[in-house]
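Entry, Tuesday afternoon. Goal for today is a structural model of the target with pyridoxal-5'-phosphate bound, before we commit to ordering more compound. Inputs were pasted exactly as handed over by J.K., no edits. I checked the ligand SMILES twice against the vendor sheet because last time a stereocentre got dropped in transcription.
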Amino acid sequence: MSDNLLKNIYTAEEFEKNATKLFKMIKNHLQNTTTGKADRTLNWNEPDKELNFWKVFLENGKNEDFFTEILKRSTHTHHPKYVGHQVSASAPITILTAMVSALLNNGMAVYEMGMSPSAIEKVVTDSICEKIGYTSDFGGFLTSGGTLANLTALLSARKAKVSHNVWTEGYLEPLGIMVCEQAHYCIDRAAKIMGLGEKGIIKVPSQESFAMDIKKLEVSYNEARAKGIKIFAIVGSAPSTATGAYDDLLAIADFAKDKNLWFHVDGAHGGAAIYSEKYKHLLNGIAQSDSVVIDGHKMMLMPTITTALLFKNKVHAQHTFSQRADYLLHDTEEEDWINSGKKTFECTKTMMCMHWYILLKFYGEEVFDEFVTRQYDLAKDFENTLQTDPNFELATSPMSNILCFRYTDSYQNDERLNQLNTSIRQELLEEGEFYLVQTKLRNIHYLRTSLMNPFTTVDHLNLLVNRIKEKAELLLNKN
Ligand SMILES: Cc1ncc(COP(=O)(O)O)c(C=O)c1O
């Protein structure tokens, strides 16, 4: 091994050589994708072929081709024909904050390992708490994703609402969490990780619109109580993932108050609507919650992965994990905003707060208002297009920027249509011009679009409709 290798890889010249080239490529990528000039959102490749490519590339590929290949072989969220999963087209300025986080690598578990990001994180989370409508004692932190944040919130709920100390004594009685059957699967997973078992996750039925059926709350609660389950928390989805339907948070807040439950809002996707003058009414009742999750990498234009977990009362954030790590943390009853690792699952985390701060600083809250409002409006326009076309059927009217629909025909045979819509989606995936996804709701297969890209217009969506029809006709003629 060469003695000079380590020295060489750290030279500023080596960095500059690679960075200059990459910055040009990023600029071209942004230009080609955001304008829709690139003719595809992804270049589909079978998994085995892709695996083989990277095995061979490690041995034989040219180093200078690495970034070119990565850009070519990935899904382009910045393309207006990207209407797939709920991941943002990251605002270009946050590409730079991601880079600075990688450079400084301050792990943030304790204040000394992230002085400015610890302070920045408090500025950011306090401002989100105020926007939610929390008053006086609020507080929160950033963590790695909605899944982890929801689990953390439910652990805080257990600590706050269960009379014995589960952390030290284990479970002395069966406990449970209530949530709509349509909620993101991470809530179910959180309950299982917490050891509550199948009976510990009480799924409240959904109504026609796929939002929680509030009329069933009392029945679901009583059934669980009759089985001896002590319910300590209820989760409202804002919105749920598959259809983008917002639960009635006001009604859930009242129910939680009546039964003395922790009220958690999973706003991973649409919590960002607190910034939208036009759509913030969807979150009425959020100010009465005990905790809220909002993903920065979904509707807030940030790179993966950054999530805010906000608490009405910061004491609960402080007490979730009572574990001691004497070399890092000192036990204190006082507010300890400076030592992030006490409150988060992570010991080390990225300096994700910079993405939130820089967007607020450079562009203000208006950027979130403009983005959320535009995307939710666009879904309404798309709904109008689909409603006037007899070949399409909507699962439900969209409440957010998520819209589920299917191609249909005069036979209306669900089994046949399930097969047809699955095949249409596969054909579109392999063609790569548009990227959309699919979901199964009440045994019906739907095509699913999340309108995540700020450059997607009705014209793009009309083109998508035409492509779907072309594929459907080809497939129907084949059979
Ligand atoms: C409502 C909701 N909650 C939680 C999650 C999980 O968030 P993450 O992917 O950041 O872990 C998602 C992801 O789509 C979601 O839509």
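DSSP finds 17 helices and eleven strands in the chain.
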